[in-house]
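2.7 Reproducibility. Because tokenized structures are sensitive to small changes in the input, we list the exact sequence used for PTS family mannose fructose sorbose porter component IIC, including any N-terminal residues retained from the expression construct. No trimming or masking was applied before prediction.
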Amino acid sequence: MSAISMILVVIVAFLAGMEGILDEFQFHQPLVACTLIGLVTGHLIPCVILGGSLQMIALGWANIGAAVAPDAALASVASAIIFVQSGAATKSMGTATAIAIPLAVAGLFLTMIVRTISVAIIHIMDKEAAKGNLRAIDMWQIVAICLQGLRIALPAVALLIIPADQVRAALSAMPAWLNEGMTIGGGMVVAVGYAMVINMIANREVWPFFAIGFVLAAVTQLTLIAIGALGLAFTLIYLDLESKAGNGGNGGNGGSGDPLGDILNDY
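Resulting structure tokens (single pass, no recycling of outputs):
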């Protein structure tokens, strides 16, 4: 990997770390982070596939109360770097996907450190606010956000320092049973992540669409564009039927006319 590519990867990692808090441009999402790393390293398509697999895992991750979800940003960036350093071979994708889970859990430790430091920064900002020093408040706000970026950028630098030959040698030295086990485990984790999302949104109204999509996905003659077009068509049909139900539907009074809104209201 060239020096310019390494610098660009670190920049992507820095942005991913900040976006884990800002949530504005979604750089921390696996699909976006892996795609950008693939773009700057010349392995776009394999990294897009890796990002898609990791995104399926992260679909079920969410912060609930004081429980913080695993760090998707660190998992995405570190897995993509390891994948690229190994040569972006298809056989390494399962290993990179499986490695993402412990990396995401390890990222929680770094998150805890940065957020603990941020508490001290908040107290400093309170003192500056009492003085009416708005410039200092802005400066410390930027410092706090940059710490979130460094939380991902520094591990990325550490991984980039490791020579690519050593990464390939380490992966090649893995026994076949371990490599195959990690590949199978990575595939199972992807399915579990999607199952968690289905479990959250499952109801009588969306199950038929899931069944239709599952059947269509099994038809090998249909491309992703064709399946996407069918999904868009079903969405328009659903919205049209929903609007007709909201207009009364010949005197019907079964709900508010907004099925998804009714589900949210139930919660």
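The CA atoms of residues 57 and 63 lie 15 Å apart.
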